[in-house]
Amino acid sequence: MFVKSGMHCISRVAIAAALVVAPSFATSDDSAARPVNPYTGDKPSVQEGGSLFNQYCSHCHGPWAEQGERPRDLRRLRIRYGDDAITMFLTTVNEGRLDKGMPVWKGVLPDDVVWKIYTFLETVQDDE
Amino acid sequence: MNGIRKRLVGACAVSVMALTSGAAMAQSGNEWTQYGGDAANTRYSTLNQVNTGNVKDLKVAWVHSLGTLESQESTPIIIGDTMYVTSSTGPRYVFALDAKTGARKWTYQPEMPSDYMATVCCGLDNRGVAVANGKVFFGRLDAKLEALDAKTGKRLWTVTVADYKKGYAITSAPLIVKDLVITGMAGGEYGVRGFVAAYKQSTGEQVWKTYTIPGEGEPGNETWKGDSWKTGAASTWGVGSYDAKRNLVFWSTSNAGPWGAQTRGSDSSDVSQYPNLWSASQLAFDADTGKITWGYQYTPHDAWDYDGINEAVLTDLTIGGKSVPALLHADRNGFFYVLNRDTGKVVAADPFVTVNWATHVDLETGRPVEAPNNEKRPQLGKWARNVCPNLIGGKNWSPMSFSKQTGLVYIPAFNMCMDIANREEEYTPGKFYLASEFNLAMGGATGSHLAEFIAWDPVAKKKVWTIEEANMWASGAMTTAGGLVFYGNLDGIFKAVDAKTGKVLWQFRVGTGITQSAVTYSIDGKQYIAVVAGRLKGPPSFFGKIGQKMMEASPEGGILMVFAL
């Protein structure tokens, strides 16, 4: 799907190849069509996702997603969007929010990188 | 350039200067005619009505809302009785105000495209305008340069300096040299190729453009591995200085990009083959042709984001009984440099904060000697731990000031270290291209404070006094003949300090964070001091928990405060 790969690290490629990833970037709010993160809870993916997050997103969203600018605080996706967090995440990452300063990542980051970043974010969600 | 030309103080002097203002060469007296106060960037004013004896009586004269919420980094320019000041985000506004009352003379709003924000690295700032020959010039975050009529605020011309969609932007005020307006550019995090460009003030026609990275076949191009020179950054997002006697323009360059140094040369401290000229360097340009007269590289083959853009302050120093035409520069890499501005030769280089990435600068070769065994140099997949200073640097863009009265330099500095590693990454136009990962969530390098304000003796090469700041960021400095140095912090405390002793004589809470230097001017025999404040948003975004504290200290907002006795 994505022509460009930002990753050359052998282990990452190996992991991506080992798993059959069939991401669906559907934006429907029909819960049946909600995308499923293939890596949820997978420890190595959490770790790798944190590192990828730090590499690609942290200069705007804070290292390890620690951030004081509320609208950019990605630890609050669950509080903000509940079950729709995953859809909101994928839509925003794909399409960006250029008028606010959020870049478009479609065509830049491969699917598995985006999923791993999300896998990391799932582990740092705030409760209140 | 050599010494202060004394100026008359008083109402009649003001009106005369308003008419004859050759802005570029004016010294800071009644007016504050350019970003650094004068073409030498000293930020020293000869005004002394407000002084160590009476500064305790300083009161608010007027206040102006800047109309935007973040990153207020503008240096107001005062010509005659008019103040020109910009707001952040674009700029959203250019204001011309009555400098005595704050009443608005005109307001200009540039037409910014809706999508420029996604390709601006580190905060949507604008550092202000340049004014000359009845025109106001400023750069925009969509990499355009614009000229307005200083009287009416009507737009005269707009030129595209570079393509913002590829990550280019303009954040700092341009430099006025004779009939030229000269600008640098930002975008080092996006794989751009740096340059400085000069335009005719009258028409916006480009007169020269000089790349900071030599092109194919030019000497220095071989200091880059493969095609890495094409995306090698060396941007010029700071400000220039001008020496009229030598007809030289001084500009310095950012670190090489991407940060992951293996992409541009060796993956070790052996930097000899690929130093990556002229990244992280001081350059001297012929003002008429843009030709590079000399270059000196502060950080060869950078891997730490030791961006070299900090301002060059020009003054003559007496060192060992001899007068040296000096260029003073406090680098992100933690060394305070004295260069000979005729030759570019390094005269002195001494750490002004905790430095451990290099043991010293070899004054013979001019090169820093890195810590042994690549211990402090990040490599591909290998972390360098506890590297000091961190990537925000020993000093960042907030300007220092050189007081002709005390002979000292006042430096807003940081006291921090980091862990950093190189990563692999492919270049995508308009996207961040760092090839690096870092951890900045560490305590102070020496003591727990994160920032400090330093009085530095450039001849004796040592600190004279230091004020510690618990939170990150001491603002830029401004010195006056009243024996004072002014600066502020991110908690919004604006201070007047005895320039000799470091004693805080007066302070005022302006309500949000200060990062830019104050300015001073005089109208009808009354001295005013002006400072802008607003939440800093770029750097806190990548500073994790420290960043959270910075945000909490400075609410969103944008304010210009003006004080007088």
CATH class of chain A: Mainly Alpha
Radius of gyration of chain B: 22 Å
In CATH, the architecture of chain A is: Orthogonal Bundle
Distance between the termini of chain A: 37 Å
- Provide the structure class of chain A: mainly alpha
Mind telling me the CATH class of chain B?
Mainly Beta
Notes on the protein architecture:
The complex is a heterodimer of chains A (128) and B (565). Helix content of chain A is 43%, strand content 0%. Chain A is mostly helical. In chain A, helix 2 packs across helix 6. Chain A is globular and about 35 Å long. By secondary structure, chain B is mainly beta. In chain B, a hairpin with a 4-residue loop joins strand 30 (451-457) and strand 31. In chain B, strands 1-32-33-34-35 form a five-stranded mixed beta sheet, with no helix packed on it. In chain B, strands 2-38-37-36 form a four-stranded antiparallel beta sheet, with no helix packed on it. Chain B is built from three helices and 38 strands. The two termini of chain B are 31 Å apart. Chain B has one domain: Quinoprotein alcohol dehydrogenase-like superfamily (Methanol Dehydrogenase, Chain A), CATH 2.140.10.10. The chains are: A mainly alpha (128), B mainly beta (565). Chain A binds chain B through residues 4-9, 51, 54-56, 58-64, 66-69, 72, 96, 98-104, 108, and chain B through 114-115, 117-122, 124, 189, 381, 423-426, 428, 430-432, 434, 436-441, 537, 540-545, 547-552.
